[in-house]
Specification:
The chain is of the alpha+beta class. The protein has twelve helices and 18 strands.
């Protein structure tokens, strides 16, 4: 969430920043509620002071052996007024809370203006679209083609077992999927200095609130009502919440975590979008990078983390491009985001495979995740940075389509052969 003092004292600045991303604040309502809050809070504090004063007077009279009965009725009346004032204050604060926690992060000054994905800006490109001397197929055709060992992908049976937007993989393709996870974890932990984590796949509402998924995106979550727990939409949630309500020693920063997990998303609002294949599913796998850093270091950390995600694509020799998201396409909690988009020859287009974002103090303020500044000795909010490195299913799709052969077989990338027990081609 944004700093409440920033909103109260620099409302025009906040309004201008949010307008850049197409969000219009109800300034009149916000100011009216804030005016009411101040008035009721002053009145509440006055009543509290008066109650304290009268309590002392009653105590003094009682100690002196004087009759306190005349004062008791006044105190009872005062207590009723104080209770009513406190309830009114709580109601106003709840309304302000709902508004403030629904306000997205302000975009960084370097974020380009724009309304949607069409206005995102190409930052750099690596590699050229893979050339073929035959018509390349998409991953669905490759996965569902009949082979001696059976189909590599089975969407129909997955839908029978669960529902649409699930898949069953088998044989060498399932092994390739697993190999990708291990390869990514090894690269980030052994070469990039991240600590590997294994975390719960169910989290409580406070955790989703901390990273910004609740309350705004409740419909996108899978909720287990009996225990009031949620299936994680990304490992970002449990990993970032490791520092919730903690003060991290400055000497430990930056904290760098890498975590593989399944991810579960209801895809509310995406009806009819990418319903074929593995592009947009209810359950998928990701390897997530999270950095928790000093505020002065967060934009350098964003560049570094993005480079780590890119390195996986480079090692796999998959053509990709890096896009700077415009203000209108930013996620709710992000101040700046780079999307990595991989080339898919079966679709003849680039598709998102990772989003790397700096959230500045937005998530940390919701989580009360802090570090102790050595110069002042005082706790300050951390900055949080994270990104997929990478989305495993989409990386698998990219390999299938970029490494396909004319006979429908798939060549295993050199970087993954050590993880494939000698398998070099998925026939």
């Amino acid at each position: 969430m944004l700093d409440q003092q920033l909103i109260r004292n620099h409302l025009g600045q906040v309004q201008a920043g949010l307008e850049k991303r197409g969000v219009v604040l109800d300034i009149a309502r916000l100011q009216a509620l804030e005016h009411q809050r101040k008035a009721i809070q002053v009145r509440t504090e006055e009543l509290q002071a008066e109650r304290k004063s009268r309590a002392k007077a009653i105590g003094a009279r009682k100690a002196a052996g004087e009759d306190i009965e005349p004062l008791l009725d006044d105190v009872a009346d005062l207590a009723d007024k104080l209770k009513a004032s406190e309830e009114a204050l709580a109601e106003i604060q709840q309304q302000l809370w709902e508004i403030l926690h629904g306000i997205p992060n302000m975009p960084h000054d370097s974020v380009p203006a724009g309304d949607d994905a069409n206005d995102n800006v190409l930052l750099r490109q690596w590699g050229e679209p893979t050339p073929f001397d035959f018509q390349p197929q998409d991953h669905i055709a490759l996965g569902e083609s009949d082979r001696e060992s059976g189909r590599l992908m089975d969407f129909e049976t997955a839908a029978k077992i669960a529902s649409s937007r699930f898949v069953i993989m088998q044989g060498a393709l399932a092994r390739l999927h697993r190999a990708l996870i291990q390869f990514m974890l090894d690269t980030h932990s052994q070469q990039h200095g991240y600590t590997e984590m294994a975390v719960p796949y169910l989290v409580n509402p406070d955790s989703l609130f901390g990273t910004g998924q609740l309350p705004k995106f409740a419909d996108d979550q899978f909720h287990v009502a009996k225990q009031d727990l949620y299936l994680i939409p990304t490992a970002e949630v449990p990993v970032t919440n490791i520092v919730r309500e903690r003060i991290v020693d400055a000497a430990r920063l930056p904290l760098r975590f890498v975590c593989h997990s399944p991810c579960f998303r209801s895809e509310a609002g995406s009806y009819g979008k990418d319903t074929r294949g593995m592009i947009r599913q209810h359950q998928f796998e990701k390897v997530e990078l999270v950095q928790l850093v000093r505020p002065d270091d967060s934009y350098a950390a964003l560049e570094t983390l993005t480079g780590h995600a890119e390195r996986i694509l480079q090692l796999l020799r998959l053509p990709y491009r890096v896009m700077t998201l415009c203000a209108g396409d930013l996620g709710f909690a992000a101040a700046k985001t780079y999307d990595l988009e991989v080339w898919l020859p079966g679709q003849q287009t680039y598709r998102e495979i990772s989003s790397c974002s700096n959230f500045e103090a937005f998530q940390a303020r919701r989580m009360q995740a802090r570090w102790r500044h050595p110069a002042t000795g005082k706790p300050e909010l951390l900055h949080t940075v994270n990104g997929s490195a990478l989305a495993v299913g989409r990386t698998l799709i990219a390999i299938m389509e970029n490494y396909q052969n004319a006979d429908g077989s798939i060549t295993v990338p050199d970087a993954l052969i050590p993880y494939m027990a000698g398998i070099t081609t998925i026939a």
